[in-house]
Design brief:
545 residues; single chain; globular; 6-stranded mixed sheet; alpha/beta; TIM Barrel; Diaminopimelate Epimerase, Chain A, domain 1
Length: 545
């Protein structure tokens, strides 16, 4: 007769180096799964002794296993566009970008819209600039172009016309229409001005969009990711995600930062904002382990890699310029207060230290009306956070979810715009861990602006060495254990999922990834080359190399 204990497992994975990321950061060699959950971990002898006649037993040949990785700030939807949009990855000069674009446009029907994948010409191109309208017209004279850059979009003449942008169009509140020396639109729209081209872009059919979101999840699985916080999701995509969930096609656990109008700075009056929340039955953290709402997303400033982060001190090259504000502080305070009053937590994009001040001011004001402590309100990015702000956030119980991988390819751009000293203190993970503790932190990528690869992100956190080999802010380096926790046990707290995911322990969901190399022992320079060989979500293999 079988002794009482864990139920007979469906599957046992053994002869592995299993980094559990539990409270002790234990390493075991075997793990047993029943249904969607882990039922046992331990030595090979301990776990293999649980096997029954129907148990599938797999020898992993000494491979290293981590809990399924969690990206706490990723635009999941961008991954679904890979087959449908222009890819500028690897482009290094303006002429190469134009050639890539022309290759995509050739053979397309005149009048068909062409969309690009997110990229970063100001750091990526040798010329360190946007493409001009005339350059875009030269390779796409018959097709409207919509090339998003993240807070900016580049357009040619046809898409400017479709968006209704002329020399006489005024800048919208919170946005800028960039103009050439003659006052004509240059083809670049900034922040709220992007709404004009978004409104003109015909988009995708519901069927195509739904399939894109299925494809996107598979793409993230291929990097060992089993959960993600999708950074700004509009109502239409929320519906598509729910359809995918109900059909049992979800392969990535998703918690969504909701953008009620699709904008980071919502296109609503104060009255409309109040009415929206008053009439919305759902609240933040509504959902289950597969699909939930993590809060409402807002934005204060631009970015440190775009010369638009809102700073306490002026920019080095202009004593009158402190960056870009996309929202007036009193409006921000009101939007946060209304959301808080209606049981919604808030995550706010804030990169520069002045922007972070505004966010913490808004959170403190909301807290005075109704406590936000223990509710995990979020500073998203927090890239140039100062020590006094870390202390203030900790007192409020506010999370910071950062993206160190910005500095992998864009540290030189930060140094160019804000100075080397500021680049060295950017994304200060060591300081944040020491002052705030791991439980209030997480690490993500902001894909598609940055590379999705979690091992590049981990490598930068551990070494502070960028893709070119330059070290920025060596004192902000963290340990491998800390970097792994920022992708696992600490990251799970963003969506209040720490009791379900983030570590490999009995009772938790069997979300895991098997790696090509031992992440605890490979040389530092090999960390970015680690790959996911297999990804399992709820005990089911969703990716295998």
């Amino acid at each position: 007769m079988r002794q009482s204990g864990p139920p007979e497992p469906d599957r046992i994975l053994h002869n592995a180096k299993i980094v559990t990321a539990d409270a002790d950061f234990s390493v075991v060699s075997a793990l047993a799964i029943k249904g969607e959950r882990i039922v046992a971990t331990g030595t090979d002898a301990e776990v293999l002794g649980l096997a029954g006649p129907a148990t599938v037993v797999e020898d992993l040949g000494g491979a290293t296993m981590l809990p399924g990785l969690i990206d706490t700030h990723v635009h999941v939807e961008e991954a679904g566009l890979l087959k449908h949009t222009v890819d500028f990855q690897g482009v290094r000069r303006v002429d190469e970008a134009l050639a890539r674009l022309k290759q995509f446009v050739d053979g397309r029907a005149p009048g068909e819209w062409i969309m690009g994948q997110l990229w970063h010409p100001q750091s990526q191109l040798a010329e360190k600039r946007f493409l001009t309208r005339a350059e875009l017209d030269s390779v796409a004279p018959d097709n409207p172009l919509y090339l998003p850059v993240g807070h900016f979009s580049m357009l040619n003449s046809l898409s400017l016309a479709a968006a209704g942008v002329t020399r006489d169009t005024p800048d919208p509140e919170g946005g800028t229409i960039h103009r050439d020396a003659d006052g004509e639109p240059s083809g670049v729209l900034e922040e709220a001005a992007e709404r004009m081209v978004i409104a003109a872009f015909p988009g995708w059919s519901p069927e195509a969009r739904r399939q894109q979101l299925v494809d996107a999840q598979a793409h993230l699985n291929s990097f060992g990711l089993t959960s993600a916080i999708s950074a700004a999701v509009n109502p239409q995509d929320v519906r598509h995600y729910n359809s995918i969930r109900l059909a049992g096609e979800q392969t990535l656990r998703l918690s969504l930062m909701f953008a009620p109008t699709g904008d980071l700075n919502p296109a609503m009056t104060a009255e409309e904002w109040e009415r929206f929340f008053a009439l919305t039955g759902a609240t933040s953290d509504f959902g289950d382990e597969w699909l939930s709402l993590s809060g409402v997303k807002l934005q204060v400033d631009g970015g440190m890699t775009l010369r638009t982060a809102a700073m306490r001190e002026p920019y080095p090259d202009d004593p009158d310029y402190h960056g870009t504000w996309v929202i007036e502080p009193r409006r921000l305070d009101h939007l946060v207060a209304v959301a808080n009053r209606n049981d919604w937590r808030v995550g706010i994009h804030a990169v520069g230290d002045a922007a972070i001040d505004a966010v913490l001011d808004a959170y403190e004001a909301a807290d005075a009306e109704r406590s936000i402590r223990e509710r995990r309100f979020i500073v998203i990015h927090g890239s140039l956070m100062q020590p006094d702000q870390m202390d203030r956030a900790k007192r409020l119980g506010v999370r910071v979810d950062a993206q160190p991988t910005f500095l992998w390819t864009k540290a030189a751009a930060v140094a160019r715009f804000l100075g080397r000293e500021t680049a060295d203190r950017a994304v200060p993970m060591r300081s944040m861990i020491d002052r705030m503790g791991l439980d209030l932190l997480g690490a993500g990528t902001d894909y598609g602006i940055n590379d999705l690869d979690p091992f590049i992100n981990i490598a930068f956190m551990v070494t502070r060495r960028d893709a070119g080999g330059t070290v920025y802010g060596a004192g902000e380096a963290i340990s491998r254990e800390e970097a792994i926790r920022l992708y696992t046990s600490a990251a799970a707290r963003y969506a209040f999922q720490e009791h379900r995911t983030g570590s490999l322990e009995p009772g938790k969901l069997a979300d895991l990834t098997v790696l090509s190399d031992d992440i605890l022992t490979v040389p530092d320079d090999k960390l970015p080359t680690i790959r996911a060989l297999r990804t399992m979500v709820g005990g089911r293999t969703v990716y295998e190399a």
